[in-house]
């Protein structure tokens, strides 16, 4: 079987290390993508720090999403062909100039969406869709609380919620981020630097669903504002992995707390999510009813500056790396 050489970045002593690696021709349902842009996520920071290794069998190359052009397809591939401009939801391998991935994790770019936008949409909208509709099972008009409101996932969830008639309250770290979320349709918000969000959310009316990438001491506060039969979905541990919950409130209000990760989901789950995005979200993006929120596109040579900006939480949306083609 013939192999080809690619360039990518792996975690080494807390920093991205440039490496060469070989990849084989695509088998069965796989495609090879020549990557033009790589989406950046907080998971990349965790992997660099040694706290979030790739799932078993996945590449050590960083990166959970990318966009580019299909250059080769396996014999069973039916949806894609060489030359297609695509985006991909990955378990690993996005910080590279080529990636081999099942076609089930790949979609053609929505009409009018650029390659840079394509690299910024898969992880955010897949995470938002999966957790709102599959995990939490949110229904029209149920009330939604989004923490880290200006993150790419929350901005995607906010727009989907607005389209499906769900009132949204956001928390974030600056007044500017709150205002940005309100421009996109959030009814109200709270600057976390002003203290607990509990009274503000209660005064707003409480929440049926909470999407929480923070955990830590937020969980106890989440419980206080969660309505009867409410659901808390924990996506991350920005506030720490230890938490205290009120078991009495959990019982009497029939609350549900669910942990959720996307990266290690099996292929059939990711395939289902990608087809749902194509059916339900791609038309919203193509028509402008939803937007891909990009803070900045960095050239690959400025990767370290981009990672520093992400560490400092100085973003309203996604950071994207552009591969410089020779």
UniProtKB/TrEMBL annotation:
Entry GO MF terms: NADPH binding; oxidoreductase activity, acting on NAD(P)H
Superkingdom per UniProt: Bacteria
InterPro entries according to UniProt: ADH-like_C, ADH-like_N, ER, GroES-like_sf, NAD(P)-bd_dom_sf, Quinone_OxRdtase_PIG3
All copies of domain Enoyl reductase (ER), residue ranges: 14-321
Alphabetically ordered keywords of this record: NADP, Oxidoreductase
Keyword DNA-binding attributed: no
Pfam hit, one: ADH_zinc_N
Name the UniProt record assigns to this protein: NAD(P)H-quinone oxidoreductase
UniProt organism field: Pseudidiomarina homiensis
């Amino acid at each position: 079987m013939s192999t080809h050489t690619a360039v990518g970045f792996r975690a080494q002593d807390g920093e991205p290390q440039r490496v060469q690696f070989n990849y084989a021709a695509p088998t069965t349902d796989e495609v090879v993508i020549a990557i033009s842009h790589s989406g950046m996520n907080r998971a990349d920071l965790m992997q660099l720090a040694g706290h979030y290794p790739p799932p078993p069998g996945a590449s050590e190359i960083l990166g959970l999403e990318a966009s580019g052009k299909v250059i080769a397809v396996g014999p069973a591939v039916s949806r894609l062909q060489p030359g297609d401009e695509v985006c991909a939801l990955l378990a690993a391998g996005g910080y590279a100039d080529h990636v081999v991935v099942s076609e089930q994790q790949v979609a053609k770019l929505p009409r009018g969406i650029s390659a840079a936008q394509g690299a910024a949409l898969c992880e955010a909208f897949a995470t938002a869709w999966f957790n709102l509709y599959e995990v939490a099972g949110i229904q029209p008009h149920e009330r939604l609380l989004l923490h880290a409101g200006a993150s790419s996932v929350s901005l995607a969830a906010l727009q989907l919620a607005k389209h499906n008639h769900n009132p949204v309250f956001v928390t974030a770290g600056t007044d500017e981020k709150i205002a940005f979320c309100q421009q996109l349709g959030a009814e109200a918000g709270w600057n976390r630097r002003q203290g607990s969000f509990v009274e503000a959310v209660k005064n707003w009316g409480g929440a049926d669903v909470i999407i929480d990438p923070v955990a830590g001491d937020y969980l106890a506060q989440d419980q206080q504002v969660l309505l009867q039969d409410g659901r808390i979905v924990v996506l991350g541990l920005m506030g720490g992995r230890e938490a205290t919950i009120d078991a009495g409130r959990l019982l009497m209000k029939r609350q549900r707390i669910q942990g959720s990760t996307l990266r290690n989901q099996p292929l059939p789950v990711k395939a289902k999510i990608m087809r749902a995005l194509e059916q339900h979200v791609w038309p919203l993006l193509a028509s402008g009813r939803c937007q891909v929120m990009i803070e900045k596109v960095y050239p690959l040579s400025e990767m370290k500056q981009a990672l520093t900006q992400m560490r400092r939480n100085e973003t309203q949306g996604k950071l994207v790396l552009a591969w410089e083609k020779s």
